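Troubleshooting log. The previous run stalled partway through. Resubmitting the same two chains, unchanged.
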Amino acid sequence: MMDVQYNFRLYVAGQTPKSVVGIANLKDLCDTYLAGRHSIEIIDLVTQPHLASIDQIFALPTLVRRLPEPLKRVIGDLSKTDRVLRGLDIETAGSP
Amino acid sequence: MYLKETKALEPQLSKAPTGIPGLDEVLLGGIPTGRPTLICGAAGCGKTLLGMTFLVNGATQFDEPGLFVSFEETSQDLADNVASLGFDVAGLIAAKKMAIDHIRIERSEIEEAGDYDLEGLFVRLGYIIDQIGAKRVVLDTIEALFSNLANETILRAELRRLFVWLKQRNLTTIITGERGQGTLTRHGIEEYVSDCVILLDNRVEEQVTTRRLRIVKFRGSAHGTNEYPFLMDDQGITVVPLSSAGLNHRVSDEVVSTGVPGLDAMLGSGGLYRGSSVLISGVAGSGKTILGASFVAAACARGERCMFFSAAESADQLIRNVGSAGISLRPYLQTGLLRFETKRPTSVGFEMHLAHMQRELDSFQPTVVIIDPVSGFRGPDSEVHALLVRMLDMLKIRGITTFFTSLTNSSDRRAQNDFGLSSLMDSWIFLVDIESNGERNRGLYVLKSRGMSHSNQIREYLLTSNGATLVEAYLGASGVLTGSSRLAMEAQGRVETQRQHEDIARRRREIESQRAATERQIAELHAQISAQDVEIAGLAAREERRETVFESDRAAMGASRGVLANGADKIAPINSRPNDSRQSV
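Second attempt completed without errors. Output:
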């Protein structure tokens, strides 16, 4: 389990308060639970609007767990950590 | 018409035509341009198809590209579903006149963790709208969001923002919504869409479905307020604003032949008035359909377009059957002058029937229509009567000459139930069975024909291999005779006539021979006269000869006595005659 690499994509639209909070929450969460085994890609739909349709985005912010499979989605500013962990299927046992 | 007049009074509100036959008429032009319109109804009542048609028509007819946002069906499914209607969705998408965006939301795959908004949806729609320059948008069914997202507060706020956003972008939008319990939509989104609300309904009564449409609300515009039936079939959606024509239709003085020469004569004017309605009543097998087909054949032969609504027989069967009576309809079917519409009266509701009929009439534009039989409509009398009145008005206002056939159970017309139809009809032709001497014959009489001095007689109605003809029934001492009785009486009549002819000929011969005898007598008498003349002439000649002899004898005697010859004049001649040539010199 410790070897599993996580790849995230966080979709936002510009520098809205929710975007800022969302990005911060994701970074905190990864540092806490997935230190050293994650990568984050922030996609701003304001500059890449065509990706919204391709990646089936409708709510913002949306966090997509691309790896490991299967694909998982969490919407919201990620302030509810327990829900994020559940949604991303991240093991928390043994962690602080 | 009322609708058209009101339209002229509403120039201020810009409307986007849907291009759906009948709907724009009911909406007095279309749905409000640049505003959202809510279309609600239960599952399967045609919301998606209506939305799709709105976009396809917009792209093909009004040069307004459109975006279809589907929350339920995939793009492929949507395109396939309307392909049978001749909508080339793939082609329109390739030409950038249309776009479909399927927003797939799986509740099980989504975790809501914190505050969010639907900005992603805005970005997404905005991008496609800009790509194709969309003027029209359909959101089908946006309420799907409610069942997939838990936070209703966010959702409501975002939907409100979405509708404002669509309005600001001046997009003519259709939002579909599923009907809820006691509300127009399940989640009450009608409170955000207050400009125009259209309700679709799909009622099943006695196992028969009737689709209806009603404009619940249209802010800033007049609109048709009734429930209008609409059709959803291989021709897409057709809304049929059934209107009652009233009694203001134009009438024609033109008389058209019925195709049955004897009947034309019976009607007094050589046929029926164009645009009139004719009821043909009769028991089973009395030849109602054939009479109707005769009229159709005559009209087609004149080059008129005819429409045959058959509720009892298929087109092929009907053509074959009337063909056996010498009426050939197939050529007209092939040249397109004749069209058959075969539908069981029970297959759809009354409204649907009318709607279907109105659409067919408007597309085919016939001048002659047969409804065979009208008695097939079953239901409460008042409803059937209302149906028939509306049907009649629909035909009358179009100036169509219409034949209704009606099956009666009895030859006694008072016993039949005709839903009060007879009083609506201009002409009523009754076909009766005449049973006598062990056979059944067909009789026809004209019960009424408005504006014509028609015959009051019952004629025998014969179905021959050369079509229907009317024969004068034999009117004898024992009453009206038909069939073989008539033939027998006619034969007897012929014998009688023959005998009279012979009598006269014999009498003529007798008289002629008498005359010949008389002439012979005359000739004999003439001969007698001639003989007598000859005899008289003979007598005169003899007399003359005798005188000559007498003179010569006297001269000889005188000479012998020495009398001078010049003294002979002193002696008067004996038996001197006035015609004696010698005396007259």
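Takeaways: The longest strand of chain A covers residues 6-12. The interface with chain B takes residues 11, 13, 16, 18, 21-22, 25, 45-46, 49-50, 52-53, 56-62, 71-81, 83-84, 86-88 of chain A (CB under 8 Å).
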